[in-house]
Design a protein that fits this description.
Distance between the termini of chain A: 40 Å
Largest sheet of chain A: none
Strand content of chain A: under 5%
Radius of gyration of chain B: 20 Å
Shape of chain B: globular
Oligomer: heterodimer
Shape of chain A: flat
Order of helices and strands of chain A: HHHHHHHHHHH
Largest interface: A-B, 21 and 25 residues
Strand order of the largest sheet of chain B: 6-7-8-4-9-10
Number of strands of chain B: 10
Number of helices of chain B: 9
Strand content of chain B: 15-25%
Order of helices and strands of chain B: EEEEHEEHHHHEHEHEEHH
């Protein structure tokens, strides 16, 4: 038996810190820090034109000032509110109509051509129309986000229902499931992975659309912050806006990933 | 489907058991790209109450189609099916005629083991407490106690099929339909599950129609084996295994017996030509596909 040999080998080894995984993690943390350092030094030495690329320290200082003055939160909260309201206005009907289309072919026959015909229109192109109809207030922002979100959620939900493995429907039928059970116990959970995928895509597009919409049709919000900072050449503020939009994107994605884990515990990751 | 009601109590002697399922001239025709394909060409068959009835045949012979017609998942083109229902008791109306155990992964990935097993009972309107109580007994019977709250992705392939078996038995149908439930499992797991299926079935004695491509599995499990011809499916022969191997049965004893080898050889002789015919038909089909459209 070689048991003793193995035990000897284990003594003193302890936990190995220098694993391939840890080295790669370290590299991943280091690369953005090194880039920021190079940027900072490059600005100080004069390799980088600080009119276009202000030093990271100046951007962080500006961000800190804007946090203290409440300006950043004002822009952030209004954009978040627009995203939240618009997203819900798009996602809820998207899921409901998508389920109905997936389950009942006459409904699909009516709605599918309308979706196919209007989906290719870039959503931001409808903004002038929405401003005309809803005015310059919040309603036009909600409407443009809802429009962008509903397509992606709806299309994915239909695909989710249509792609449910036929065997689950066979089981439902063989075991005498009612229409209600077919819907609640089979169609809905079966479609859920693609529904959530649609919600994730929708959220990504919602961010894209709200920033562009705020460029032209708003007096507040992250998009407005970026646009006006450019117009008055407050480049640091513009960078703060970019940074915040990245954080918003990251945060909403994390939120939806969490939602996915809660809603779809059976999904193998 | 004609369903008659009979009040006669099931008698003790196996051969004297009344017919449970009677098929007369059962035919099924599919249309594949506009071309009619004869799947079943007139099946006349009696399956007795409380019998474990196996169907073997070459691939594509229509044995799964036969099962799916019995399960109500497929319609028949011609012929009659008569099923004698058990005497009506208080909740007989709510009792399901048949439950199917499918070949592939068919348990719901989004339901726990407990909710999967209780699915049929939920469809029949049992309260949560009642269906969980019944499910618990069957989960124990298939050896999954302690896994009630597990989700299917946490289980092995063999454990998933145990859930599928428990789901069908828990539903307490009059007939159990099984479509190669162990085909996707490894050999050792298959042996264990076959032995357990024999044990559970010998305890409950339900009418079972079991489709398999494995001669070996059919001999181990069946009272009688129906050997089907290549497509279009016809009855080639019916072999009485119960006359050779008594119940209760032990898988190991059956397999090590000399009579097992004889039976295997006999069934293989019946099947060999049919398998060749099925192969030839497949090759012809493949050639037709390759040929340019007329």
């Amino acid at each position: 038996m070689s048991t003793t040999a193995i035990e000897v080998e284990n003594i003193g080894t302890g936990i190995r810190w220098v694993t391939r995984r840890n080295v790669e993690r370290g590299l991943s943390v280091m690369s953005p820090i090194i880039l920021l350092l190079l940027w900072e030094i490059g600005g100080a030495v004069g390799w980088v034109d600080t009119r276009f690329f202000p030093a990271p320290s100046a951007i962080f200082a500006e961000a800190w000032n804007m946090i203290l003055s409440g300006e950043l939160w004002m822009h952030c909260s209004i954009s978040l509110q627009r995203i939240a309201v618009g997203f819900c206005l798009g996602a809820v009907p998207g899921v409901v109509i998508g389920l109905a289309m997936g389950l009942f072919s006459p409904i699909r026959a009516v709605i599918q051509p309308l979706v196919d015909a209007t989906f290719p229109i870039p959503k931001i192109a409808v903004l002038p129309l929405f401003i005309m109809v809803f005015g310059l207030g919040e309603e036009s922002k909600y409407a443009i986000i809802a429009t962008a979100v509903i397509y992606l959620v709806l299309i994915n939900t239909v695909a989710g229902v249509r792609n449910i493995d036929a065997i689950y429907l066979d089981v439902g039928k063989n075991f005498g499931a009612s229409r209600w059970m077919m819907f609640v116990d089979i169609a809905l959970p079966g479609a859920l992975p693609l529904v959530v995928a649609g919600l994730k895509l929708g959220m990504g597009v919602a961010l894209l659309v709200i920033v562009s919409a705020e460029f032209v049709g708003a007096r507040s919000g992250i998009g407005y912050l970026i646009w006006t900072s450019w117009q008055v050449f407050q480049v640091e503020k513009m960078y703060v806006g970019l940074m915040v939009s990245a954080v918003l994107g990251f945060g909403t994605a994390a939120l939806l990933n969490w939602l996915e884990r809660v809603l779809i515990p059976w999904k193998v990751r | 489907m004609i369903v008659t009601l009979s009040a006669s109590a099931p008698s003790g002697a196996r051969s004297a058991a009344p017919n449970k399922i009677v098929l007369r001239g059962l035919k099924k025709r599919f249309f594949v790209r506009g071309r009619p394909v004869e799947a079943l060409a007139g099946i006349d068959l009696e399956i007795r109450a409380g019998e474990f009835f196996c169907v073997v045949g070459p691939s594509g012979c229509g044995k799964t189609t036969l099962l799916r017609i019995l399960a109500g998942l497929e319609t028949r083109t011609a012929g009659t099916i008569e099923i004698t229902r058990e005497a009506v008791d208080t909740d007989a109306a709510a009792r399901h005629l048949n439950s199917m155990i499918f070949q592939e992964q068919s348990i719901f990935p989004w339901k726990t083991v407990r909710d999967n097993v209780a699915f049929g009972l939920k469809a029949r309107g049992f309260s949560r407490a009642d269906r969980y109580a019944i499910a618990a007994g069957y989960i124990r019977k298939v050896g999954l106690a302690g896994f009630e709250d597990a989700l299917p992705h946490q289980l092995s392939g063999g454990m998933k099929q145990r859930v599928s078996i428990a789901r069908a038995f828990a539903n307490d149908p009059e007939i159990l339909l099984m479509d190669e439930p162990f085909a996707a499992l490894d050999e050792q797991t298959k042996l264990v599950l076959q032995a357990e299926l024999v044990r559970i079935w010998e305890e409950l004695r339900k009418t079972v129609v079991y489709v398999t491509h494995s001669i070996d599995e059919a001999i181990v499990l069946a009272d009688r084996i129906l050997v089907m011809s290549a497509r279009p499916g016809r009855i080639k022969d019916i072999i009485d295994v119960a006359a050779v191997f008594e119940r209760p049965r032990h898988v190991e004893t059956v397999k090590s017996s000399a009579r097992y080898g004889e039976l295997f050889g006999h069934i293989w002789n019946l099947l060999r030509d049919e398998v060749a015919a099925a192969r030839a038909a497949e090759d012809a089909g493949a050639k037709r596909k390759e040929a340019p459209p007329e």
